[in-house]
Amino acid sequence: MKGIVVYKSKYGASKKYAEWISEATGFSCVSVKEADTNKLAEYDTIIVGGGVYASGMACVPFLRKNIDRLKGKKIIVYTCAASPYDKKFADALIDMNLKDELKGIPVFYCRGAFDMKNMSFADRTLCKMLRKAVAKKDPKDWELWESALMECKEDESCDWTDKKYIEPIVKAALE
Ligand SMILES: Cc1cc2nc3c(=O)[nH]c(=O)nc-3n(C[C@H](O)[C@H](O)[C@H](O)COP(=O)(O)O)c2cc1C
Questions:
Q1: Domain ranges of the chain
Q2: pTM score > 0.70 for this model?
Q3: Adjacent-strand bridge partners of 116
Q4: Mean pLDDT in the chain?
């Protein structure tokens, strides 16, 4: 069985998961930018992963663009976000992002990282604005992702990545 992991990662957590999955499965591993989509036909299993930014799963455009090429193959998706895992949150995220022909693709959740110091200027500005808005709310009304945003202080780097998240992905890929 031949497989590949294709990832889209802005800050490194989804890339780290791609590398762990690649090590555990023996599949090759490339970023969305490096992926030669004309060669996807060579693979039986394609694992596509990426970060979540403002509730958008970054791997979706690649999936949408290549869904015809991926027909008949085993497709597995993983998504990497700051929120701690919660079934309701994950299901809502998947429903919001995987529509039409992408519906039904298995999606696995991996917790990511949050590095306020090394963010792009635009992302840091957005996160600072969000923090200000969230700080005005009663903490008991915070969404999960808002709690993660507040847990990580402005010049801190929080890393919640954990190899345990790849276990079900590797199992699904190799079964
Ligand atoms: C601008 C921005 C928006 C984000 N939006 C969300 C979000 O809506 N929900 C969430 O759980 N995490 C959110 N995050 C956290 C990222 O999902 C997390 O940093 C993840 O590790 C990103 O993947 P990457 O490290 O591969 O880029 C956001 C991060 C940034 C920088």
A1: 3-112+160-174, 115-159
A2: yes
A3: none
A4: 95
